[in-house]
Structures are given as C-alpha cells and as structure tokens.
Amino acid sequence: MVPRVNEHIAGTAVIIYLVREMLTMIKLKTNMPNSPKKPSEISLPTSLMRYTNLLLVLSLFSCSESDQPASISVTRDAELLMLNGKVYTVNPEQSWAEAVAITDGRIIWVGNTKDAKPWQGEGTHTIDLAGKMVLPGFQDIHIHPVHSGVSYQQCALFDIEGVTQLQQHIKQCAENEPGEWVRGGGWLVTNFAPSGLPDKTLLDEIVPDRPVALKSSDGHSMWVNSRALELAGITSESQDPVGGRIDRYPNSKEPSGSLQETSAMNLVHMVEPELTQMELEAGLAYSRDHLHSLGITAVQDAILKLTPGDAYYGLPAYRALEERGELNLHVINAMYWENEISL
C-alpha cells in the first residue's frame, strides 16, 4: 500500500522553508559593511534562525487538518475497523475521532472515517457505528468476580424487595435446587429495616428440613436457618469469632439467624460442600460476560484466598480461563492478609 502524506503539512513545510530563506537574506544584509549595526536589527533574525529547524520539526507533528501523523505506512489490513462513531480517545491532543483500526488486539490507528480506507482489506471486519460512542474500557477497582458470579448461578436474590417476595423466591429455589444445601445471595439489608438483621424463622417457615445459607448483597452478612446453625454447631454457648459476630435475639444469647463478617460466615462455610472447579469457572465466566456488557474490561479482585473451600478461593478459576484464552479481562488479584496473625 502507498504511504499517505498530509498535503496541509507539506504546505506548512514550504512556508517555513521560505521564511528561512528570507531570514538568511536579512542576516546577510545586516552583515554588509554599510549596513547599520544596531543590536535590535541583528539579534532578532539570528535568534529566529536558531529555532527555525525546531519549528519545522514541530510543525510536521502538530499542524494537520485531521491531527494525524504526516506519513503513515500501512503495512497490513486491520483485523477490525470501526467507522462513523464518536470515539473518545483520552488523548488531550486528539480527544475525539470517528474511526479506530485494531490488529492483534491492539489499536493501530485512530482518525477520521474518510482517512480509514487504506486500513480496510478483504479480511477486515468492519463495523459501522452509526454515531454510537466508543470509550476505553472501564475498570472496577473493588469486586469479587468468582464468587459473585457463583451467587448468580445459585439462589440469586439481587434486586428483590420485600420479605414476602424474598421468601417466595427462596422457596422456589429450594424446590428447584438439587442437593442438600440451598445457597445463594444478593438480598438487600434494607428489606429488614430498621435493624438490617434477617430472622432465621423466616427461612424455617419455607425450608425447615434443609440448611439454607444466603449472603447479603454487600457480602458482609449471611442469613441462615436453624438447620444451617445446627450443622455449624452455632448455639447460645458459641463465642463470637475474632473479627466477626453471631447475631442474637435481644436480651438473649440465642442466635437469631444472621452472621456478620467473614470469620463468622466461615463457621457455616466450613460445613458446606466445597464449590467444584466447574462451579468456580462458571461463576467467573458469568461475571466476565456481565462486566463486558457494562464496558468493564479490567478489575481488581479485592480478596483472593488460596485455601480450597474458603469463601474467597478462586485462583484456579482465573488460571483455567486464562489458559483457554477465555478470561478476556485485565485482572489484579489482592492476596488476603490474615490480620490476626502478626507480621
């Protein structure tokens, strides 16, 4: 393909060349024997001559009609070409564009639609954005992709409002969920105002004979029924674990059915069946797809633990999807520090 040269830049170069010639003539005139020797008549052309070459170089990079480089050699067709869009580049020198060319997962050119033709070949997948906006991917800096995704594969209670509606949904989950346990999460603390503490009896009414363990939407609380408390050995004699709390009825030591923070929730997690590798991978894949639908392409997993069965165990899921080329996310994993253990 033939390199493209911006005619506007070429014209600028000619103008600067003429300015250089004019300054040369002025400099010669001021050096003639009969010419005046005032400093003002000599220093100005000399000073300008000193910076003319620099001015020429800068003009080649900054003065163009479409803010594109002076000459672009197109050595291969783009794999993906997006046209007729509103592209926000996050580049202060060229904040907006219309077209983007991508090859090997990298942006190789950004510019105007009218200049995109050289990047388009027989094998190029071309998308007409029809005025739609294109932005760089967003990053979520505090998220739990593996286990949040797992919750959506279980009894998902997200965005359900009202205790009665929650009970109806949980009962349906129990009817459809195979296995001994009914697990899931996503319930809103505001459903149990003003205390924010759900009662075990609400679960006992609908699932009396199977253990139920459901995390809140913020991940800091767990709602359990009497059967789950029994299997976990949590009684009125149980002490609150370090960093957590077993909620109890007022003026009583009897557990009321909610557990606060990871150390308390782990009392139940330790007696639950471990999540399988397939379940962990399915959870991560679900979160990946959901994040992509929101334009999120990079995440920080806020807690990642390495012990199988732990509430935040998930590194093998990341590795499996990455090895199969299915992760498609930039990921930073925050390794958990057991803060009750001294340095």
Keywords:
single chain, 343 residues, alpha/beta, Urease, subunit C, domain 1, Diaminopimelate Epimerase, Chain A, domain 1, 3 domains, 6-stranded mixed beta sheet, 4-stranded mixed beta sheet, 18 strands, 34% helix, disordered N terminus
Strand order of the largest sheet: 11-12-13-14-16-15
Counting helices, strands and paired strands, the structural category is: alpha/beta
User: What proportion of the residues is helical, as a percent range?
Assistant: 25-40%
Please, how many domains?
3
What average pLDDT do the residues reach? 82
- Contiguous runs where pLDDT drops below 50 for at least 5 residues: 1-71
Strand coverage percent: 15-25%
What's the end-to-end separation, in Å? 62 Å
